Amino acid sequence: MYIKSPLNYTGGKYKILESVFQAFPRDVKTFVDVFAGGFNVGINVSAERIICNDQITYLIGLFQLFQKTEINDLLKEIKGIIEKYQLTQQNKEGYYALRVEYNKSRDIIKLFVLACYAFNHQIRFNNSHEFNSPFGRNRSSFNSNIEKNLTQFCQALQEKNIEFSNVDFLELDYSFLGENDLVYCDPPYLISTGNYNDGNRGFKDWKEKEEQELLGLLDKLDSKGIRFALSNVLYHKGMSNELLIEWSKKYKIHYIDKTYSNCNYHFKERNAVTVEVLVTNYELT
Q: Disulfide engineering: 7 pairs with which of 16, 38, 115, 223, CB 3.0-4.6 Å?
């Protein structure tokens, strides 16, 4: 049974972890999660050392808090905030009062509580890095499932050898990696960009330039004998990522939905399928 991130992060891989892990090598010393997001992959991977990186400062801040705080103390603090602001699935005023307070204080635990009560549990910012997700009336709350996920997630963070990094993917240090390591990339998707990386949230956006830089970086890792795995989509809602399709021909393509693996000709039709893949530069032994 896999651990589920307590954060509902766009593009999270929890539901397809089995397919992703089937394509991972078994002998990983250092695993680098370059675009960690909700960290569903990194928290569940089997490796001697795990590096969790993301350019979103607040995600890394939350994970560091979860790693260093005893779970009972964390739950006590969360429930104290819920009680102070009388947060429920109906109390819109309490939610917006907490949102105002967080945007003043930038207290990272308040950000997590906000996400629990936000629409679709989304963490979203404006260009000034102010949290601006609307209230999730009659839908969102800090419920027993989130509490269970948080507890298991924190336990794994505290038991595993996990280090954190908060830099752009081009600034990350790959120089120490060797043939027994694995670099995993789950970047924003060029043809289905989420609101975390659309350029309007105070963080770097994702355009063709960034896509080319990432593919160039992966080519460089390959030339040095370092294994990589790239999550992405080749086709989505009638669009195709031609840059990625052409580049991926050099490597091995694992189709997350196996039914697409032998029917490329269908993709020419604008039938709105999403073809999710994992591209790797190694063969499984």
A: 38
